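Today's session is about reading a structure prediction critically. Students often jump straight to the picture, but the first step is always the sequence itself: look for stretches that repeat, for charged clusters, for runs of hydrophobic residues. Only then move on to the predicted structure, which in these notes is written as discrete structure tokens rather than atom positions. Here is the chain we will use throughout the hour.
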Amino acid sequence: MKVVAGISALVFAIIAIVHVLRLIYGWQIIINGTVVPMWVSIPGAVIPGLLAIALCCCCKKNANSSPA
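Below is the predicted structure for this chain, in token form.
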């Protein structure tokens, strides 16, 4: 389970980083001819970022506890 949480944390971190880079560099996303507004990247960076942090904390917490 620790490996799955670690991989999930990595995926969420990558998603958050890409959204932050989009905000910094002003990259446009066009889906089916519609431009996605830049504000979408704010929750798109914050939510996966928080999930990545929570999963990392969960992995560290489980690594420090010894099985009975």
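Discussion point for the tutorial: The chain has two helices and two strands.
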